[in-house]
Amino acid sequence: MVSNHNRQKKIAVINDLTGFGRCSLTVSIPIISAMKLQCCPIPTSIFSNHTGYESCYFDDYTARMQPYIDEWKKLKLSFQGISTGFLGSEEQIRIVLRFLDDFVSEDTVVVVDPVMGDQGEAYSTYTPEMCREMKKLVCRADILTPNLTEACILTDNAWHEGKWKLSHVISLAESLNEMGPDKVVITGIPQGGYIANLCCEKGKEPRFVRTHRLGTQRCGTGDVFAAIITADAVNGIDFQKSVRRASCFVKRCIQKSIEMDLPPTDGVCFEELMMQLPTL
């Protein structure tokens, strides 16, 4: 009897595995699982803890990624969702592009979180060559979840400090739509005492989703957000509803983390609130 490994909906998540600090795969796996989907991780690297701490152990997984993926090809796995996070080199981006060639089908939703920079600066690991490769990956996305910095880098727009005009942010999102993704959400837009996310879908009016700003920036919130967006897309949830749900859940997690007096480097204690997620 031939085994069928594709009876349950699955999401492949390509990201680093960080043991402590609540980010990347250690966030995606439990959240996607809680949303009744099988999460299948592809690690790009292994960290003992993320780089926001004074030191960490690091193991680059690039050379192991393709043999790992080749075993999935032997199993003839299929995925209803594919999500990408931090990628550490041009070669890793190329491996992801080949993965999409091999595994994307008509019913696969591709979600790309570009993870290129923040606060107006590209991460030190991001070379101009990597930025060009990332643009190729963005063209393959159905849903894109950049922050303002990444939206500027991807569209070759200048970053500026201070308040952003809404028309400027909408223009950035529409430029990203033109690169390929049907749905774009630009995250972390400062609006006074609020943080806004802009939803921009081809053929629909752009919409801003705002929540009250709480505390200081915490690591891993983008991974929480992207995991919910990906799972909702596979589950057929309306995009704007999904962005509202993800925004609300992240806010509640930040509030709970403040109440528990957790260091910002330790991320958000989403574990305390997982039971609320299906009802938001």
Brief synopsis:
The chain is an alpha/beta fold and 280 residues long. It contains eight helices and eleven strands. The longest helix is centred in the last third of the chain and has 21 residues, at 239-259.
Structure description:
With 280 residues, the protein is of the alpha/beta class. The termini are far apart. Helix 3 links the parallel strand 4 and strand 5 (109-112). Helices cover 38% and strands 22% of the residues. It has helices at residues 25-34, 62-75, 90-103, 128-139, 148-155, 166-179, 221-234, 239-259, and strands at residues 10-20, 38-49, 58-60, 81-84, 109-112, 117-118, 121-122, 143-144, 183-191, 194-201, 207-212.
Spell out the blueprint of helices and strands.
Elements: E1 10-20, H1 25-34, E2 38-49, E3 58-60, H2 62-75, E4 81-84, H3 90-103, E5 109-112, E6 117-118, E7 121-122, H4 128-139, E8 143-144, H5 148-155, H6 166-179, E9 183-191, E10 194-201, E11 207-212, H7 221-234, H8 239-259
Parallel strand pairs: 1-2, 1-4, 4-5, 5-8, 8-9
Antiparallel strand pairs: 2-3, 6-7, 9-10, 10-11
Helix pairs in contact: 1-7, 2-3, 3-4, 5-6, 7-8
